[in-house]
Amino acid sequence: MRFDTRCVRAAIEPDPVTGAIVPPIYQSATFVLPEVGRDLGFDYTRSSNPTRQVLEEQMAAIEGVKYGTAFASGMSAVDAVTRIFKAGDHIVSSDDVYGGVSRLFNKILTNFGLEFTYVDTSDPANVESAIRPATKMVWVETPTNPLLKVTDIEAVGRIAHEHGLLFGVDSTFATPYHLRPAAYGADIVMHSTTKYLSGHNLIIGGILLTDRADLDEKLKYVQKSVGAVPSPFDCWLIMEGLKTLSLRMARHTDNARRVASYLESHPNVARVIFPGLESHPMHQVAARQMENGFSGMISFELEGGSAAGIQLMNSVKLCALAESLGAVETMITHPASMTHAEVPEDERRARGLGDGLVRLSVGIEDAEDILEDLEQALARAQ
Ligand SMILES: *Cc1c(COP(=O)(O)O)cnc(C)c1O
């Protein structure tokens, strides 16, 4: 099956009892055994659940790998990866990672003896020089949040594997519609299913995908031991969202391209960051490794700096001032006070994450309506 067909059909069979075309929601904590020592494939929903299993298989097929392991949030998926390591192990990570990921790494996992080094992975040489004898994994986010830095994952994957390290990629912003990191050597692909994959601002969820049976076994063991599992209903909602992934992403990226070029030509806008623009420093790499466009995320800064950015975000009407991204509604975010408020100010500045930075998750509304809303808000934000 080709990609669009896999989104709609992979792993989804009519219910053998009723013929229902949509898999049922098996909202059940436990499963009755026909006799001692024998089950019908399921025993307890923390370990496995028929609805979750459909989602895991569907998502693995969409990502082009064999195995999927679903979690109750993107954060618990990232956390599960780190639980295959032990105290003293070291991880090299992209510096501009999602705010919650750097909080988990720095504020929680360092208490358990894991060590982290952050580098700008858009230059693979930085990864090579950060590797130590205790290094066990390279963790890359591409494009990053919110600066949309792009990493050449084939190059970084080669370095990781030359050193015998695991290579994990947080591919939440790209989705498998634009990028399938396993094809470039990623051992583990992670998504927050909260975002584009479910796509409708309905659930919080995460998933890990791998082609390696040994890793799948470890991750499933963490899943059932720690128990950060999604509810069957949430799995079902993600499954339904995935069926329209291609259609939605095509519109997200089309709209984002239009909004990015509009912003780039606007006199009040100082800087636009979108991997699809020629002006993006890693545009060539993005164009090479991403397909069908560049997803729907844009960051920009206004000429009037912080005050103008805040005025703009307070003036939008159609764009929703909200944390999160990757849903059908256009959402606008102020990273400095919202998603990245916990990153210390000097570190934010060092990363190029100014107080005037605006992040836009371009939705699937009519692009004209999004542009009109930005036009009126930009006029007020002089
Ligand atoms: C949202 C997000 C996460 C965390 O996922 P949750 O579902 O919010 O727990 C991790 N990485 C990226 C890139 C994200 O956008």
- The CATH H-level superfamily of the largest domain is Type I PLP-dependent aspartate aminotransferase-like (Major domain)
Structural class: alpha/beta
Number of domains: 2
Query: Which ligands occur here?
Result: pyridoxal-5'-phosphate
Alpha-carbon distance between the two ends: 51 Å
The residue ranges in which pLDDT falls below 50 over 5 or more consecutive positions are none
Whole-number radius of gyration? 21 Å
Q: What is the H/E string?
A: HHEHEHEHEHEHEEHHHEHEHEEHEH
The geometry reads as globular
In the sheet with the most strands, the strands line up as 1-7-6-5-4-2-3
Largest sheet: 7 strands, mixed
Please give the count of helices.
14
Query: Any idea of the CATH topology of the largest domain?
Result: Aspartate Aminotransferase, domain 2
The first-level CATH class of the largest domain is given as Alpha Beta
Oligomeric form: single chain
The share of residues in helices is 25-40%
Total number of strands: 12
CATH architecture assignment of the largest domain: 3-Layer(aba) Sandwich
The percentage of residues in β strands lies in 15-25%
Compute the average pLDDT. Answer: 96
